[in-house]
Amino acid sequence: MMPLLEIKNLKIEFGRGLDALRAVDGVSLTLEAGETLCVVGESGSGKTVTALSIARLVPSPPARYAGGEILLQGRDVLKMSAAELRGIRGRVVSYVFQEPGASLNPVFRVGHQIKESLQLHRHVTIQADIIDLLRELKQRLGMAIVLITHNLGIVADLADRVAVMYAGQIVETAPARALLKQPLHPYTQALMLSVPGLGARSERLPAIPGSVPQLGAFPSGCRFHPRCARVRPDCSLEVPDLLEVEPGRWVRCPYWGYEPRISGSESEVST
Ligand SMILES: Nc1ncnc2c1ncn2[C@@H]1O[C@H](COP(=O)(O)OP(=O)(O)OP(=O)(O)O)[C@@H](O)[C@H]1O
Ligand SMILES: [Mg+2]
Questions:
Q1: What is the residue extent of each domain of the chain?
Q2: 25, 11 contact by CB (below 8 A)
Q3: CB 53 less than 6 A from any atom of ligand 1
């Protein structure tokens, strides 16, 4: 059966010509009906731009869809007419924003089932309610969910798969359980160390050193290498490929096999 959504090698740029900056750089994702995919990554990694592109809602200009395909039920969203796009927005693809006022334009029609259920649930709507609601809707309607979050606790609760983004690229994608049990990319490991109740065990959570590089100022080679705890001299030379290290598990680091240190303790890693 064809996946509900298949994003292939998507590239989205802001600006024109030599000044164009690539915010989404070769992202590929597959979503089956009934599946929940969580996209995680620090601010500016390209999560929102990727998600909005599914209904071609990243306005162009300033954006340019510079390459790739977004196959929704087999039809390429990037080739749809304005009328076809109107037909999918709010019907086939719906967006729910956690902070409606803060996000882009409120031009999105939320799928009516979701609106209805949110109204039914209106008292204080807390995160746990939303998580329950999404789980129920997914079961009832067989819909798929792409959930963008900074919260790896939500990933543990809801996700079937996880895609970890950094500087416009996916650096790791895996079944949620496997990724939470053993993150393989140094960035995923660092991200998990900074989340209470997951990898991190101490009271003081270590932040990932350094900051996310600005669009247009990505470092050479692996974009994470200046912040990586396990950096090697050749990490600055070439952008690593995504490697399939187990079935369904992809990691953008040639040194993924090295012992991850997610325990947060100082104990020796046996060799
Ligand atoms: N309209 C725009 N013009 C120029 N650059 C943009 C525009 N929208 C987004 N970008 C850039 O694209 C990159 C990805 O942004 P995006 O909003 O997708 O990040 P994000 O992962 O969703 O971050 P956050 O966690 O803060 O929501 C950022 O560098 C951002 O500055
Ligand atoms: Mg965002």
A1: 5-268
A2: yes
A3: no
